[in-house]
């Protein structure tokens, strides 16, 4: 079977809806490549290009990709194998009424800084930053409500989570037949928090392998990511306090699935290792994760 | 000069006030040892000891230690050289109306789990967690208001920041003559977030060296910590969003001191590397830090 490429040029969405129609269908276990366009779709190409407002359609997500056999209650496993930047420059921007410091009078909104790619680095003026690509928006068809690709929620979406990078595995609840995976809004580099509202926005090619975990022994309400060293629950909500409460609650459920613990014991243990991390504080809902080192958790979706 | 030991048995405070009287005076550059008692002062010694409410006096901080020559506008540098646990067991607890999940009906408040120390590990039931000590409360005399040792603010206090550990250096603004350093509330292990409201609370001996940075070229409004790999600003506020905004603003000032950047450029750059981290979400004010890898920042208090 030749490797399928799904491209934003033909197949992209600006809204995760319960009734997404598939652009492509992947077999369970199939590896494919997803081409993504920068979140501003080429509108910002020089420092004098400024973003006067957030576009109505932004964060184009390539897809959706139906995965054969995925049915509601399953878990979709996405191995992120490689992310290659496909432009020779990215861009970091501010826009009015957007970003952590949007009310600061001494910060320019809008402002643009183009960031050339040089080998494995991004150039910010005379400072080099290593390329560490991040998939900003990645998710599946939601259960009942629809979400713009600018919004993160239980289906994923605009999670802006630095762990969505090559070498890690993301897990999503399957709410609709086929799951309907879509992704985009990639960055060549991004800080936890994404304070100014963007990272280095850039086009990419992403290699993934998709697997359906049927009838998982642990149910999943929200996204989860597995890195080399940790499992991390991911939750989005109106405030960081609420998102933290949800992510911590999800982690407690995973700890209870591994250990012979009451909920209170899982709660106490969650307060001792790993901990809360910030994904982003700038989207319409904010995103927090709760990490636990892998040695304390069995693979919730491993062989029985 | 023999090494001075300052102990909680003689010298402890429950409030950081502007007019603290020194328990001891250290020379600029002096190394000393600080003995701290567990945050609950021995009240919890077995699983059936429960914390019915947060005590009026809690988080005893050993000190205060005046540092000779420190005057307002200076910066106090605290090299944390070693933290030794001094009990054979710690404790993790919940208490009513306290902690991230305080409203959850399925979590017991109060609840206690004693955690024996075994070599380099803490035992939580049959799970071993490595000892990674944290100084929960550390700070100096504040500028104008007084703060219970349960509260974190610009003077430090109950920062509950995992980076306050052996091998790192903490910096505090000097608001009063002598700075008046005090510390306590140590943990043998703690997650970022301190979700249940405590880590493994335990008594410790802490070795520190204290230096005064006179007339710093960079002024400091809030605490700062230097780890092996990063500089991290630390801010406490009523919400995580506000704390994040302050910590990010403090980091921008440091970036501007190193690079020839406008504030807007420092803001964009802060969105590309390192990022926001959560210290704790359970104290009367919450605490967030903003990290930047060391290669992007000159030592703000290094030799001119």
From TrEMBL, chains A, B:
It comes from the Archaea. It holds the Pfam family FmdA_AmdA. GO terms for molecular function: hydrolase activity, acting on carbon-nitrogen (but not peptide) bonds, in linear amides. This is Acetamidase/formamidase family protein. It comes from Halococcus morrhuae DSM 1307.
């Amino acid at each position: 079977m030749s490797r399928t490429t799904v491209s934003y040029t033909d197949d992209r969405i600006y809204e995760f809806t319960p009734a997404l129609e598939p652009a492509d269908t992947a077999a369970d276990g199939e590896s494919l490549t997803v081409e993504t366009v920068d979140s501003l779709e080429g509108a910002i190409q020089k420092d004098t290009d400024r973003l006067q407002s957030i576009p109505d359609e932004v964060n184009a997500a390539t897809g959706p990709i139906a995965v054969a056999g995925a049915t509601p209650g399953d878990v979709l496993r996405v191995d992120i194998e490689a992310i290659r930047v496909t432009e020779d420059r990215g861009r970091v921007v501010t826009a009015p009424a957007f970003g952590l410091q949007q009310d600061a009078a001494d910060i320019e909104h809008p402002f643009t800084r183009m960031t050339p790619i040089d080998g494995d680095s991004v150039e910010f003026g005379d400072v080099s930053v290593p390329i560490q690509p991040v998939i900003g928006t990645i998710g599946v068809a939601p259960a009942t409500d629809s979400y713009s690709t600018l919004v993160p929620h239980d289906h994923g979406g605009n999670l802006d989570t630095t762990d969505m990078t090559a070498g890690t595995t993301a897990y999503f609840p399957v709410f609709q037949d086929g799951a309907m995976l879509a992704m985009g809004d990639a960055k060549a580099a991004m800080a936890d928090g994404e304070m100014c509202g963007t990272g280095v926005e850039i086009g990419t090619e992403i290699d993934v392998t998709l697997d359906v975990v049927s009838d998982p022994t642990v149910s999943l309400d929200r996204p989860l990511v597995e890195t080399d060293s940790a499992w991390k629950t991911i939750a989005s909500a109106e405030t960081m306090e609420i998102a933290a409460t949800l992510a911590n609650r999800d982690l407690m459920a995973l700890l209870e699935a591994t250990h012979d613990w009451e909920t209170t014991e899982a709660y106490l243990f969650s307060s001792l290792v790993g901990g809360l991390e910030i994904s982003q504080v700038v989207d319409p809902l904010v995103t927090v994760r709760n990490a636990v080192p892998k040695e304390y958790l069995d693979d919730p979706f491993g062989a029985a």
